Task: structure prediction
Amino acid sequence: MSSAAERFERIHAPPAYQLVAEAIEKQIVSGRLRAGDALGTEAELVKQFGVNRSTVREGIRLLEQAGLVHRDTSRRLTVSIPHYDRLAPRMTRALVLHQVTFRELWEASMVLEIAAVEFAVEHATPGVIRELEDNLAKTEAARGAAAIVALDSEWHGLLFKAAGNRVLQLAREPAALLNLPATELILAMVDPAVSRLIEAHRIITDAVRRHDPEAARLWMRRHLNDWRRGFEYLGKDLDQPIDQVYIESIGSARQRE
Amino acid sequence: MSSAAERFERIHAPPAYQLVAEAIEKQIVSGRLRAGDALGTEAELVKQFGVNRSTVREGIRLLEQAGLVHRDTSRRLTVSIPHYDRLAPRMTRALVLHQVTFRELWEASMVLEIAAVEFAVEHATPGVIRELEDNLAKTEAARGAAAIVALDSEWHGLLFKAAGNRVLQLAREPAALLNLPATELILAMVDPAVSRLIEAHRIITDAVRRHDPEAARLWMRRHLNDWRRGFEYLGKDLDQPIDQVYIESIGSARQRE
DNA sequence: ACCAATTTGTCCGTATGTATG
DNA sequence: TCATACATACGGACAAATTGG
Result:
């Protein structure tokens, strides 16, 4: 075996279904196929690629899962570009499986949310400020932990939208999903949590409108420290990996896709 | 049609291949199937689920693509938990397709890298500091932009490892991939770039070892500003969406999977 | 509202190459 | 070395849903 040294690398032919997926992917990424374009029927793809329909279908599944292709109501194949919140469940699942702790989540949220609020103070458009204020009004009127959690999540999402940085927006997604259940528990169980949340949202929203980075930073820090204290108040351990309770809530979130 | 109001939601039966994928996914996420466990042959799954082999295969493709299952050398199905760098290409592709600008990337890098270096100063273990120093030595010895870029990327990866926060680590992945080609260009074209990079890496590595947050922050900021200046020196526009050049480099990165 | 053509989801049988013992 | 097991891929088929008259 060693007589001819190692002249050549081992050949490993990629399976046909992968080649199908990659061929289509290339067209999408390169822009020759754009979001909304029809991909044609399976029979057409069979003809073009010269492979069996089962093979085409396996390839399609890959793209479907990657979010590059989806089937509209009529089940026709349509090109689409993956939105952040499509990736979020997978990122979240990876973090859960790697047993990320609540401390890591909280630390990361601290970093990301403070950065977001700083950018928001700088870049926020009147439109998004309006959205933040609308959300605030709804939050003040809302009753029940579940409703408030949804609005809280939306408010933070709007803040990242106001920040105008989509890399940070993507980075935030998994933390947002994972904090949801804990936040609901906190709002339901810890008495002053709701009023403190509303106070923080209002002051930060005002700070964004007035372009006041100091106040924004300060109150975001307080807001997140409140979350952490609420979490500890419930008797939970920050250094504990994210557990079963959360997995279920991810599952239900994924069903909305 | 409106005679009976809208009492029921539209029924949409999930296709069998999705049910197969979800059934297996549940076992993995719930912990009943752990990384490394064998999933059994396709024939066995056919029997258990009572569906056709083609259907099983389509379901498997979904899990394979999600990184929850892979085939080892013998092509046997094995459970695995998705690693961050498996998600990175997808995140990166999403960002590219959404026409994220270099400015967003740079801003986000600034936020993430500075946070990372702060955490690293606090949490770095002797082992990881050793790795940073080894990398530094190799970088000083290296010749050629390509080699140095690889080591630079590794160094930043080690820094996030030292920071001990996997949420930030995941958040960094797409930025790391997207900065690669630009960094290579800069190192190849801008004369003092290499020595400045090495200087920054050395000082930051030292600061991490000495637990000196001030120096670490300061030099990380300088390091990233250097990157930005190098980018602008090349005549590129920070507010330009990431373009074709980058897509190719992502493609080649994905082939290593 | 009905009908014919298309298309998808699923299934069966089979051939071929490769890995394992 | 040989036999067995298995993954990949193919051709063909049919029912249910969708489309377009």
